[in-house]
Amino acid sequence: MTRYVALLRGITPSLPNMANDKLRGVFEGLGYEDVGSVLASGNIVFRTEETDGPALEERIQQALNDELGIAGGTIIRSHAELRALLDADPFPGLTHGRGTYLTATFLKDGALKDGASPEQSPEQPDPRTRIVGDPAARVFLAVIDNRTPGTTPDFMGWLDRTYGKDITTRTWLTVQRIVKKMEA
Questions:
Q1: Which CATH number fits domain 2-81: 3.40.50.300, 2.60.40.1930, 3.30.70.1280, 3.10.20.30?
Q2: Cα separation of 17 and 138, whole Å?
Q3: Between the N and C ends of the chain, which has fewer C-beta atoms within 10 Å?
Q4: Helix 53-68 and helix 20-29: axis angle, to 10°?
């Protein structure tokens, strides 16, 4: 069996249909095993014999929409993909915190337009943001410098405008917590 995480877009934990117990119930209803949640922001870990990531994404998203009215997006990553991402140490010497915000933006297959790919760093939206890609994990990794006085870079808005809705972002700490839960 393969261990996966479903990274759900647009989850608002204060809404009753988006509570972790309801989300886990949908996954259990689909027959997935060892279903668990990480934080309250739409990170559901599970095991299945299925290996077709896009088919899993479609099946889960359809069930979330049918059963809970959640029309957001679902992006699947295997434990092996996330473990390799962590082992690559993409933020050497940096610690996620208030001044240096570390994020991972996961892309659904087909989210990139015009032949772009995660190994090609996108145009930098703000000099306080440094972005690198990891093609194996289909992810953009960003270091957002919040230490500079002034407004915080509108990185999330830029991502949505540039790549559409087939993406979802997690802090680096959340990615680490997801992998820890997958290994438990």
A1: 3.30.70.1280
A2: 29
A3: C
A4: 120
* 93 backbone φψ class: left, alpha, beta (φ>0; ψ -120 to 50): left
User: Residue 61's closest CA among 168, 161, 134?
Assistant: 168
| Long-range own/partner contacts, residues 142-150 (CB < 8 A, 24 or more apart) | 142/101, 142/102, 142/103, 142/104, 142/105, 143/91, 143/94, 143/100, 143/101, 143/102, 144/100, 144/101, 144/102, 144/103, 145/99, 145/100, 145/101, 146/98, 146/99, 146/100, 146/101, 147/99, 147/100
Per-residue pLDDT reduced to its tens digit, 135-156: 666 888 888 776 766 655 567 7
Tens of pLDDT, residues 156-168: 777 777 777 888 9
Rounded to two decimals, the pTM is: 0.86
pLDDT for the residue 24: 96
Which parts of the chain have pLDDT scores under 70? 110-131, 133-137, 146, 148-154
Residue 84, token pair as written in the block: 């390799």
H-helix or E-strand spanning residue 33: strand 33-37
Q: How many CA atoms lie within 13 A of 171 on its CB side?
A: 12
Extract the tokens encoding 82: 């996330």
